[in-house]
Design brief:
Elements (H helix, E strand, L loop, with lengths): L1 E3 L2 E3 L1 H25 L8 H24 L11 H25 L7 H26 L7 E6 L3 H12 L4 E7 L12 E2 L5 H7 L4 E4 L7 H12 L3 E4 H9 L9 H7 L7 H36 L7 E7 L5 E7 L23 H8 L7 H7 L3 E3 L6 H10 L12 E3 L1 H5 L6 H17 L2 H17 L11
Helix pairs in contact: 1-2, 1-4, 2-3, 2-16, 3-4, 10-11, 10-12
Length: 470
């Protein structure tokens, strides 16, 4: 794993991105050459004009592949399922590119050349994937051999997490410190060897420090010996942050959050870039999606027989704990809260027929671009919560108020990774992802969240989960 703009990315995924970017660029040149092979040879001027078109095609295809999770993790299924997933990514890319060509006609390379380029790119990507998994890397090279330094409750948390989703991680064993409780059942290690010697003998690549009662000075020295010999040593919060992209609040102390929450520090350049990005994308999406918004408004009017409002405004807690009013398309009956605020439930009978469709497709969220243009929200950030629930959650959940150190967002890391929730327990789990975003947020991270939000909309991930807003 390497860290780019505060975000952990597998080195193998990065290698795939570089190889397939080259394939996308080359496919445009090959496609044009093939299309005009019998007509005329391209001169140098027209060849030079192909570069921006090739870069555009490569960018759209990379976004399509990323949005469908093709670079999130290495292939675990067979090549057949991988090929089907890549085919789906390419179909999405085909539709997206075709639409964008009409909006940006100067980047159009011609229908024939584009079809040739699309098929050539598909063939090259499939060949790259086969070569990558069959010849470039050994299966064992993908595995990280992990030693857990601890055998108590914290070590059990790591064990359960990896058991649920092993991926490329293999737990070699649990090193039991002196006077440590043993909660884990398997792979306990009692050795008189120095830790470094044992790790080298068993080809350990990472040591995760998960001792319930901390480590002594002598044990710390042994861990530092491992670190100085190129064995990665991580504490429990670092490990969960890297692997699960969340902040493990159960393992945090106040001093850790103060020392490591550099994402909270104000940076004028980053603030200007983020605000400019929010405004630009919001204006672009409003300009592009206004027909959908107009049709939605008409359907709501028809269903409500003109007697119920199209939009609703609802108080939410924003940046710095200030109250603002979020704007959405109305998806519930106008009297949905006649008995007071309640958590929304799955298959909530207060949702209208039109409301059910626009909630599942996230169309009801589109008017929030107005909140973004007002400066009340950002495109990406923690989901804004209602004051009634914020007061309750702040009393029960440590660090909950940290969510208000950044602007709330239309979409966010927690919405992508966890979806919606309807309980205090759900709020705790979502907060782990919100804290990760607050600690690591950058413009690059925002772009990744927006790209993965496409997957949520296209495949309905989380669409049927309970929602807390009305």
């Amino acid at each position: 794993m390497i860290r780019i703009f505060k975000h952990y990315i597998s080195r193998w995924s990065l290698l795939l991105v570089l190889c397939e970017t080259s394939a996308f660029l080359a496919s445009v040149y090959f496609g044009v050459e093939l299309r005009f092979f019998w007509a005329a040879e391209l001169d140098e001027v027209h060849r030079a004009e192909l570069l921006p078109r090739a870069l555009f095609f490569a960018a759209v295809m990379l976004i399509s592949m990323t949005a469908t999770g093709r670079y999130q993790r290495l292939m675990r299924q067979g090549m057949t399922e991988e090929a089907l997933s890549i085919g789906l990514s390419f179909i999405i890319g085909l539709v997206a590119t075709s639409v964008l060509f009409y909006a940006l006609p100067d980047l159009f390379i011609g229908r024939g050349a584009f079809i040739y380029a699309w098929f050539i790119a598909l063939g090259l990507v499939l060949l790259i994937r086969v070569a990558f998994y069959q010849f470039i890397i050994e299966p064992s090279a993908l595995q990280r051999r992990i030693l857990i330094y601890g055998s108590g409750q914290k070590a059990g948390m790591v064990e359960r997490m990896i058991d649920q989703d092993p991926g490329d991680r293999v737990i070699v064993g649990f090193w039991s410190p002196h006077n440590s409780p043993n909660v884990v059942a398997n792979h306990l290690i009692y050795s008189d060897e120095r830790l470094l010697v044992w790790c080298q003998e068993h080809h350990i690549s990472e040591v995760v420090v998960a001792a319930d009662h901390g480590v002594s000075m002598e044990e710390m020295q042994q861990l530092l010996d491992c670190k100085s010999n190129r064995i990665l040593v991580l504490d429990l919060p670092q490990f969960f942050e890297r692997e699960e992209r969340l902040i493990l609040m159960e393992a945090l102390g106040t001093e850790w959050w103060i020392a490591h929450s550099d994402g909270i520090a104000s940076n004028l350049v980053q603030e200007v870039m983020k605000k400019s990005f929010d405004i630009l994308i919001s204006l672009l999406l409003l300009f592009t999606l206004w027909p959908i918004m107009l049709v939605t408004a008409l359907l709501i009017v028809i269903e409500g027989r003109g007697k119920e409002p199209v939009f609703y405004r609802q108080a939410r807690v924003g940046y710095g704990g200030k109250i603002f009013h979020v704007i959405k398309f109305r998806s519930m009956r106008a009297d949905a809260e006649k008995d007071g605020p309640v958590w929304a439930q799955k298959n909530d009978n207060r949702v209208t027929r039109v409301g059910r469709v626009i909630r599942n497709t996230r169309i009801d969220e589109l008017p929030q671009f107005i909140n973004v243009l007002r400066g009340e929200m950002s495109l990406v950030g923690p989901r804004p919560e209602r004051p009634e629930f914020v007061e309750l959650l702040q009393q029960q959940i440590p660090y909950y108020s940290e969510r208000h150190r950044v602007k709330p967002g239309i979409t966010g890391w927690a919405q992508i990774k966890y979806g919606y929730g309807a309980s205090v327990e759900d709020a705790v789990e979502k907060l782990k992802y919100d804290l990760y975003y607050i600690k690591n947020h950058t413009l690059f991270f925002d772009l990744l969240v927006l790209i993965h939000s496409v997957e949520v909309v296209l495949f309905g991930k989380g669409a049927d989960a309970p929602r807390k807003d009305v």
